[in-house]
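URGENT: need a sanity check before tomorrow's submission.

F., can you look over the Thiolase-like protein record below? I want to be sure the sequence and structure line up before it goes out.
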Amino acid sequence: MSVSWWERGVNRLSATRNAGAFYTPTGTALPSTLTVTSSTESSKMATGRRTFIIGGGCTAFIKPRATRTTEDMGLEAATKALLDAGITYDSVELACVGYCYGDSTSGQRALYNLGLTGIPIINVNNNCSTGSSALYQVNNSVKFSQAECAMALGFERMKPGSLGTSFPDRPGPTDLFIKHSLELEEKYLGKNHGPVTARLFSNAAKEYFDKYGGGVEHLAKIASKNHKHSLNNPYSQFRDGWSEEQVLNAPKIANDLTKFMCSPTSDGAACCIVASENFVRKHELENQAIEIVASALMTDIPDAFESESAMEAIGYGMTKKCADKVFKDAGFKEGQGRDQVGVVELHDCFAANELITYPALGLCPRAEAHKMVERHDNTVSMRAFRSRADAELIASMAGNMLSILAEDSKRRDTR
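Structure tokens as predicted:
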């Protein structure tokens, strides 16, 4: 789980509250409020330097057809990011490249098309948080003075259909979660069916509905909302705008999940460039810089296995802890800051994950995620936080993974 807080602008040199941004695994900026700066050299060493997104680029995302190579897609996304930033590749001092389906050092192969500059190129494989993990590493490299300018690139060339293991001759990294979830089915969730990963999230949705109310129709509302958002995104793999009824009537994948509630496989690439405040000023990029005020990366906590909860098994507690940390690091007191969030780009590998992640991020009480969906407080033109007159919570505005597996990490104020 990776969460970050973003903020637009570089011209504030003292601790002030201003337009900001919140970021989750697939990567996007949104209005919010905070700048974090340091007053002493010792605090600067502890907290690091200010860092900024200065450019981003993205390919269109397509069905896996083996028509494009990772080198080709990576080159396109990286070139677009460099052009957007207004810099050349020789200004980049470090790169982290994320992918799950490719041989070792595929990142080098993709970036060598831009030139042989001798920079460190680090390949990242971290499942659904691969892209945000690459960005996390790049941000830290700039924050702690390893580089003035660094690049985060992600690409994927996948196989059609349900995903399987690449190494069936050894125990899989998710075996413990699968075993735990199947045990929960036997104990209290009841029999499920379908691919094991879909069952994990279907089980979590069932637990939520049993405890707090709601039903599969709420998952249909979430999925339909995301598909409709994708109509305005030219990079989306699918731009069909499925209705709630169409989502519900799609073929069933697991007990509480239909086909249109599950993300497809996809080929595509995205890239963003992170720079220090000194680099931004030197290259006069103040008007396009988006500050990363806080960023956190976290793995599972004991509750994932000890609580006998399907929601915890898919990362509810981990997500909550990670979100709490990033709000704290951004300067908010415990439980505060959520009313400043305007847009969330939220990982929705399955619609069930989006439902459960709303309260984990603190966007609503744990028992009210389905009510938030009913009020349409997760989409355009509905006031999610009425304490801020101009704030609308827009979850997965790009259509997210139900229509597009990755998203351009840069956002401007045009949406």
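My own read: The mean pLDDT is 83. The first helix runs from residue 41 to 47. If you see anything odd, call me.
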